[in-house]
């Protein structure tokens, strides 16, 4: 795999899930059309438990800490150019009214173009753009997320590390034009993009504050669209290869 510069949340940082990363490495494998992210963050999960985490991660996108929010803000956010255009030029934006049952809110949705690269492909698979909203509780910004199937949470204890793993599979197959547009193998046509996110820490998982232990969290994210591949097994092999010093 080749190391690539990790995408920064940038202007989206105030609206992202409450993980503050101290280290992030993103690796891309063009041959296998896969992306891997490894990161260390602080621990906003203290005082909660695995049931709470499960509920949060399976909440709808835009809720604050769902797996789709993590993927959008920290793995495949809109490009810096799109964010600059969205904030400075609204001529191509569309106004989205609130539903009748929701409190009054103004939303502006901006459609983001995607680079013709592997990262651009997955960014397009995750979202079509970004929505800015003014609400009674202040401004918000969140992704226009595609339709996904969220698998049940899984817990695994591997080499002294407890991982809570989540999978989000894109509903709908990759069309004929996408591989050519993003310079990807034609074999991806008809497959589905699949996204994984695991949150880990030395066992026992630090849901309780302990001054004697380092409570940093390890994040492992993986995006793949490999045809005729067991994506879940591939992600499990990645987790089994991780060691903490």
**Largest pleated sheet:** 8 strands, antiparallel
Radius of gyration of CA atoms, rounded to a whole number = 18 Å
Helix content: 10-25%
The chain-level structural class is alpha+beta
Care to count the β-strands? Answer: 12
Features:
245 residues; alpha+beta; eight-stranded antiparallel β-sheet; four-stranded antiparallel β-sheet; 6 helices; globular; disordered N terminus
Give an overview of the whole structure:
This protein has one domain. Helices cover 20% and strands 33% of the residues. It is built from six helices and twelve strands. The protein has helices spanning 50-57, 67-75, 80-88, 118-126, 177-181, 231-240, and strands at residues 2-4, 21-29, 34-41, 94-96, 106-111, 127-135, 138-145, 148-150, 154-158, 161-170, 194-202, 217-224. The strands form two sheets. Strands 1, 2, 3, 8, 9, 10, 11 and 12 form an eight-stranded antiparallel sheet that branches. The chain has a four-stranded antiparallel sheet with strand order 4-5-6-7. A hairpin with a 2-residue loop joins strand 6 (127-135) and strand 7. The relative contact order is 0.18. Mean pLDDT is 87; it is low at 1-6.
List the helices and strands and how they pair.
Elements: E1 2-4, E2 21-29, E3 34-41, H1 50-57, H2 67-75, H3 80-88, E4 94-96, E5 106-111, H4 118-126, E6 127-135, E7 138-145, E8 148-150, E9 154-158, E10 161-170, H5 177-181, E11 194-202, E12 217-224, H6 231-240
Antiparallel strand pairs: 1-2, 2-3, 3-12, 4-5, 5-6, 6-7, 8-10, 9-10, 10-11, 11-12
